[in-house]
Design brief:
InterPro entries: DUF659, RNaseH-like_sf. By secondary structure, the chain is of the alpha+beta class. Helix content is 45%, strand content 21%. It has five helices and four strands; from the N terminus they run αβββαβααα. The termini are far apart. The C terminus is likely disordered.
């Protein structure tokens, strides 16, 4: 038996990686399309890897499907309320703020701490749940975006 020749490093990290990402996006599109009808739960979990780097994983859950959204290496970053808020805001932008019904976090102190001027997790997660019925208000509250003509698609 011969050895399988692997592609060159540059091709792996450029062309082949882009092709695989496009293939996965296409496979996941039917699930992403269903988010528009029923919404999704944005979930996060934080943990430490084998060398004690803090990692935050963000997933989008819908029915029986869960899609990985992002993984953040939080090494060297202050994991305060503002940082956690920014993680969620970026994830909400990625999945579409109009699709988010709720945000579910772990119970780490940095996720539940009150304070900061950007995102009070204890209060704002409840506010997000209340606002999810009125999606223009949800978008405005989370992303500081003026709701206008772009909502009349």
């Amino acid at each position: 038996m011969g050895i399988f020749p692997h592609p060159p490093y540059n091709r792996l990290r450029t062309t082949l990686l882009a092709q695989e990402k496009a293939r996965l996006r296409k496979l996941l599109q039917p699930t992403r399309d269903r988010w528009v009808k029923k919404g999704l739960s944005l979930c996060s979990d934080s943990w430490s890897d084998g060398v004690n780097r803090p990692i935050i994983n963000v997933m989008a859950a819908y029915g029986t499907s869960t899609i990985f959204v992002d993984s953040i290496d939080a090494s060297g970053k202050r994991k305060d309320v503002a940082f956690v808020a920014e993680v969620f805001i970026q994830a909400i932008k990625e999945v579409g703020p109009e699709n988010v019904v709720q945000v579910i976090t772990d119970n780490g102190a940095n996720f539940t701490a009150a304070g900061g001027d950007k995102f009070d997790v204890d209060v704002d997660v409840c506010d997000i749940a209340d606002l999810s019925i009125n999606k223009p208000d949800l978008r405005r509250a989370l992303l500081d975006v003026e709701v206008g003509e772009e909502d009349e698609d």
